[in-house]
Amino acid sequence: MASKATLPETENIQAGAFGKSLTRAGYIGGIVLLAISLLLGNAAGDNLKRFFFAYLIGWSFIWTIAIGALFFVIIHHLTRARWSVVVRRVAEAITITFPVLGVLGLAFIIPVVAGYDDLYYWAHHDAHLSHHIHGKLGWLDPTFFAARYVLYFALYSFIAYYFAKRSRLQDETGDEQLSETMRVASGPMVILFALTTIFAGFDILMSMQPAWYSTIYSVNIFGGGMIGSYATLTLLSMALQRAGRVQTSITTEHYHDLGKMLFAFTFFWAYTAFSQFMLQWYANIPEETIFYIYRWYNNWNVVSMLLLVGHWALPFLFLLSRWTKRVLPSLAFFAAWQLVFHWLDLYWNIMPNYTWPVANGVVTGPLTGDPAAYTVGFTAVDVTTWFALMALFVGAIGTALGKGKLVPVKDPRLGICLAHENF
């Protein structure tokens, strides 16, 4: 029989002033940085094209972290997990930011519907001239695209609020049956989540390069999101403890398990990335190999190698060690490291589509023309927009943390979780 422990009466399980500080600093910082980003983007004189590309990268960064947290919550209930009870509220706080993320995404969805054609090539009037694309334009109609976007975020928000609401209700009522209700619901919810994420990944990110396709693309994006999510859970839990919250509830044992999951999804991300690469390299079909050809010329090959080494090899090597995961400064370092490389991975996925060559007066779109014309070219707006969206995300999380307790105090598995040990 598993041992149990009780939550000390002196434990501070309210976000209180900490949550309010996150909200205030996040929203103010985000708005200021977003204004700076807009000024920088406007100064570039490219019809805000660079700004919108940077915005989509930054938005995808926080969106993928949120879908990773939602998967964490669903799987927690589906498997009746014990070790993760004390960090589940942090994950729930991340997931109930989906309505805010949905609104932030409208910043690039509405312009596309209104006729802005410098972000998604399929919205450009020359797209129908490509025989690789014109057959897809029915699905990639701007209005239909926006309608699907609204549906995706309605579904994400529904799943997130379904679990968060019952989790908090259990704090008030102590009804243990609610845990079983959530476990039963988690089965169909995980299927709904998977379908939503697969189609959202195809629509929002893969359609940036509409002539190219991969059935595993959204799985790879999901893998990156899981890395970002476990890194965020780790850093946010540490921040709460530094602020005097949940100091005895979350122990080295829980951080050890968060580190294990960070390690596991680092490998999962690399596995899906290699699977996509290997199959397309082996098939050697021009419509597929263009994805890699344009990421291997000029300085894009440096970014590609950086991802291989920095997002997989080094974290994989160091996180193998038990002590890297149990020494908290070390775990915090690799969590922050993986967040930076998660952003770089999204940059590598999105930014090569920024270049649209022109041939015989026709805009041929991304991944066409001379590969030598494709360069990395980091700019200030890439960074300021990323920081702006991260700050707004932190502000929304701060608000969510303030809604209820930081630990599900009436969860029937809380006692086992508090006594959890890794052997």
Separate helix tally: 14
Largest pleated sheet: 2 strands, antiparallel
Class inferred from helices and paired strands:
mainly alpha
Mean pLDDT: 96
For the largest sheet, list the strands in their spatial order.
1-2
Assembly classification: single chain
Give unreliable regions as ranges. none
Strand content: under 5%
Radius of gyration: 22 Å
The SSE order reads HHHHHHHHHHHHEEHH
CA-CA gap between termini: 16 Å
Number of strands: 2
CA-based shape: globular
Helicity level, as a percent range? 55-70%
Task: Report on this structure.
- By secondary structure, the protein is mainly alpha-helical.
- The chain has 14 helices and 2 strands.
- It has helices at residues 16-43, 49-78, 85-95, 98-113, 142-173, 177-204, 217-242, 252-283, 286-293, 300-319, 322-326, 328-350, 380-401, 414-418; strands spanning 358-359, 362-363.
- Strands 1-2 form a two-stranded antiparallel sheet.
- α2 (49-78) runs antiparallel to α3 (85-95), α2 packs parallel to α13 (380-401) and α3 (85-95) packs across α13.
- The longest helix has 32 residues, at 142-173.
- The protein is globular and about 75 Å long.
